[in-house]
C-alpha cells in the first residue's frame, strides 16, 4: 500500500478522503521512517532545513515524489534522491507573496512604519509621503509569483516592466532579459525582486546595478537574500540614497548586530511572504492533486527535477 507522509498531524486531519489503497501518515523527517519501502510521496516540512535529515529521505527506496511546500527549490536539488521526482509549491504562495510585495512598497513609500513609531511616541506629524501610483516598477522574475506581483502593481496604477532570464512575449507583456537590467534600472522607481536563486541570479543586484537606480529608488526583495549584494545595499542605505523593503536577507535569519537592523530607509519582515492562513489549505490542495495523479498513473504537477 503506497503511503503519503505529511509532516504534521493537522495536515493529516484536514486532508480528507484518499483513493482506495493509499494511506496517509505523519512523518516530520526528524528520524527514520518506520516503513520506508512503502512511502510513495513525502511532503517536506515548511522551511525544511535538511542537514542530516536528508539521509532519511534517501532511505525511502520507492519514493516517487518529494513535494516541497515552497516555490523555491534551490535548497533541495543538491540533496534530493535521484530516484524520485521533486516538485515545488508553484501556485501555493502566489497571492500571499504578491500581497506582501505591494504591502512592503506601500509601507515604505507611504512611511506607514514611521507613522507607527510616531504613534508610540505620541507624535502627530501629518507630513507628505510618496504615492505608489504613477511609479515606474520593474519586477525581476516572471514566473507565477512574478506575474501575480506585476498584475497587482498594475492595479495600483503603476508603469510595470518585467524581467526574466530570457526575453519573450508572455501574458500580453514584453518580458526583458536580465541583460537589459542596467538600462532599465536607470528609469526604475521601485525594483521588485522575485527571481529564483540560481548561479545566474546570485548577487544579480550588485553595486553597479544599485548605482544605476535613480536617487530615492526603492528595492523590494521577496525573492532570496542572496539575489542582492548585501554589503552594496547597506552602503546605499547608510548614505540615504536608496530605500529598501526586505522580506529576505543574506544572511538569514539576520544575526544580532547586522547593519540591516539599523539602516535608515529600511522596512524589514522575517521571510513571511508565504506564511499566512492560505498556506496550509493551498498546500493540501496541491498534495491532493499529486495523490490523485499517483493513483491514476498520471504525471505529477510542478516537477522541477526527475
Describe the structure.
The chain has 306 residues and is α/β, with parallel strands linked by helices. Helices cover 29% and strands 18% of the residues. The chain is built from nine helices and 14 strands. The chain has an eight-stranded mixed beta sheet with strand order 8-9-7-6-10-11-12-13, with helices on both faces. Strands 2-1-3-4-5-14 form a six-stranded mixed beta sheet. Helix 5 links the parallel strand 6 (136-140) and strand 7 (159-164). Helix 3 (94-109) packs across helix 5 (144-155). The longest helix has 18 residues, at 279-296. The two termini are 23 Å apart. The model has no long low-confidence stretch (mean pLDDT 95).
- N→C terminal distance: 23 Å
The shape, in one word, is elongated
- Alpha plus pi helix count: 9
Proportion of residues in helical segments: 25-40%
Give the strand content.
15-25%
The low-pLDDT segments are: none
Strand order of the biggest β-sheet: 8-9-7-6-10-11-12-13
Along the chain, the helix and strand elements come as EHEEHEEHHEHEEEHEHEHEEHE
Structural class from helices and strands? alpha/beta
- Average predicted local confidence, pLDDT: 95
Count of extended strands:
14
Global Rg: 21 Å
Largest sheet: 8 strands, mixed
Notable features of this structure?
306 residues; alpha/beta; eight-stranded mixed β-sheet; six-stranded mixed β-sheet; 29% helix
Strand-helix topology:
Blueprint: E1 3-6, H1 9-15, E2 23-26, E3 39-43, H2 54-58, E4 65-67, E5 85-87, H3 94-109, H4 112-121, E6 136-140, H5 144-155, E7 159-164, E8 168-170, E9 173-177, H6 181-185, E10 190-193, H7 207-212, E11 218-221, H8 230-238, E12 243-246, E13 266-268, H9 279-296, E14 303-305
Parallel strand pairs: 1-2, 1-3, 3-4, 4-5, 6-7, 6-10, 7-9, 10-11, 11-12, 12-13
Antiparallel strand pairs: 5-14, 8-9
Amino acid at each position: 500500500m503506497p503511503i503519503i507522509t505529511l509532516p504534521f498531524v493537522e495536515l493529516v486531519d484536514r486532508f480528507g478522503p484518499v483513493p482506495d489503497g493509499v494511506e496517509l501518515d505523519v512523518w516530520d523527517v526528524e528520524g527514520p521512517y518506520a516503513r520506508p519501502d512503502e512511502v510513495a510521496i513525502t511532503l517536506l516540512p515548511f522551511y525544511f532545513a535538511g542537514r542530516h535529515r536528508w539521509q532519511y529521505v534517501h532511505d525511502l527506496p520507492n519514493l516517487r515524489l518529494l513535494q516541497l511546500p515552497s516555490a523555491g527549490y534551490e535548497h533541495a536539488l543538491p540533496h534530493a534522491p535521484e530516484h524520485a521526482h521533486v516538485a515545488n509549491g508553484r501556485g501555493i504562495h502566489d497571492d500571499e507573496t504578491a500581497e506582501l510585495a505591494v504591502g512592503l512598497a506601500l509601507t515604505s513609500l507611504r512611511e506607514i512604519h514611521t507613522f507607527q513609531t510616531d504613534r508610540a511616541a505620541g507624535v502627530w506629524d501629518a507630513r507628505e509621503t510618496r504615492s505608489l501610483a504613477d511609479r515606474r516598477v520593474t519586477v525581476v522574475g516572471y514566473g507565477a509569483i512574478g506575474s501575480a506581483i506585476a498584475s497587482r502593481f498594475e492595479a495600483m496604477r503603476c508603469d510595470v516592466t518585467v524581467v526574466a532570464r530570457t526575453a519573450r512575449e508572455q501574458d500580453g507583456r514584453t518580458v526583458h532579459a536580465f541583460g537589459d537590467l542596467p538600462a532599465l534600472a536607470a528609469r526604475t522607481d521601485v525594483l521588485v525582486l522575485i527571481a529564483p536563486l540560481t548561479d545566474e541570479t546570485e548577487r544579480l543586484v550588485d553595486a553597479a546595478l544599485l548605482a544605476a537606480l535613480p536617487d530615492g529608488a526603492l528595492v523590494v526583495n521577496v525573492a532570496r537574500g542572496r539575489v542582492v549584494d548585501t554589503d552594496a545595499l547597506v552602503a546605499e542605505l547608510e548614505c540615504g540614497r536608496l530605500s529598501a523593503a526586505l522580506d529576505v536577507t543574506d544572511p538569514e535569519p539576520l544575526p544580532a548586530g547586522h547593519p540591516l537592523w539599523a539602516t535608515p530607509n529600511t522596512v524589514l519582515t522575517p521571510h513571511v511572504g508565504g506564511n499566512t492562513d492560505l498556506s496550509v489549505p493551498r498546500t493540501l490542495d496541491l498534495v491532493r492533486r499529486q495523490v490523485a495523479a499517483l493513483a491514476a498513473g498520471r504525471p505529477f504537477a510542478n516537477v522541477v527535477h526527475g
